[in-house]
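Onboarding guide, step 5: your first structure request.
Type a short instruction followed by the sequence, for example:

Predict the 3D structure of this protein.
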Amino acid sequence: MSNNIPPQTPSRRRFISVAAATVAAGSLSRLAFADTDQAITEVSQATGSAKTAIRPLHVHVPEPQLVDLRRRVNATRWPERETVTDDSQGVPLAMIQELARHWSTDYDWRKVEAKLNALPNFVTQVDGLDIHFIHVRSKHENAMPLIVTHGWPGSVIEQLKIIDPLINPTAYGASASDAFHLVIPSLPGYGFSGKPATTGWGPERTARAWVVLMKRLGYMQFAAQGGDLGGVVSNVMGKQAPPELLGIHVNFPATVPLDIAKALQAGDPPPAGLVDEERHAYEQLSSAAKKRRAYALQMGTRPQTLYGLADSPVGLASWLLDHGDGYVQPAAALTSAVFGRPVNGESAGNLTRDDVLDDITLYWFTNTGVSAARFYWESHFNLIGAANVSVPAAVSVFPRENYQAPLSWTKRAYHNLIYYNRLDKGGHFAAWEQPQLFAEEVRAGLRSLRK
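The system replies with structure tokens like these:
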């Protein structure tokens, strides 16, 4: 991967000034995120006017924390097995015990730590909060700047496999004209970003912060991409429509019309007059609302109660795993990845057991189970209600998404729809499960915005 910044560009001039500001900021400070005094990152200390400097970040989890993690996993007090033969009562005992076995015996955090440190990681303060981000520039001229936002229960770990296909498209059979400069931030309260100490850090404030971040990096025009909560933030960016935003691509679109949302909230059967794909989407949404949204209700109303996420690795893992796709919960790809084989005929795609643990372990070492949950509490609108976006928008619909957005609803929600495609594989964690296909969709979706 290349992060070379071509000469004579605003970004290079900004990089030089940033480097000077970083030196001026002082010596490296140790930032502790976990529940011990041992730090897991090194980042330049921000003081005074240097708070908005772009400071390099390096990750290293001290060995005692790795030992403590394994000790806690092995000390788990297990409940009895569920009384059903499916996942209708939650994450099955066999699934979480298999993950815990691998976590405490075979899993190697150092591998993902090396992957993260091989990438350009930075921190900068935006609106009073430290924001972590990965910034990788393409070697190709005229690459489009793109900010890609993860969701819950995800992190920047979700996007690692799409970086090279997007910055280096010629290596994957695409054209150099399809290249992107990538900025991949951690949401507030997630990963290596700061944890808000006051209320107000929801999708709207985050969307505005992303514009500040991109401009600080020297990008005066850019696009945004997201799935899950990242799709929510990208939708809000589209609704706010800052002049710098060229357009958005989402794989978790917000398309549900108000009358449909009201019927779902009331628990009504599908309204009369729906065409087949609308009825299918309604049934998916109805099933999810009745059986699969307990986690969202808890995080949206009482996130602070989730103290177990900070105390028990297995408690954290089971909470993060209990996120579904359009058919089952936990998501089929996650279950297959944990067991290392197709389950009920469902493939994990490119998702592996270690991928799943990389994400969960990042939450553990940063102690962000509760702070990440608060993002739901800060989201004060229907996350899938019609987005009402007028900027150019591209939508990719994956078959295993929580619901498959119908074209009719999508056209009503995105008033300048420049791309819509229904895929034949991939699910809610599309960038993780199908990184090559996902990259192709991002290229195709935003291609018409290039000059």
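Each response can be followed by summary notes, for example: Residues 1-37 have pLDDT under 50 and may be disordered.
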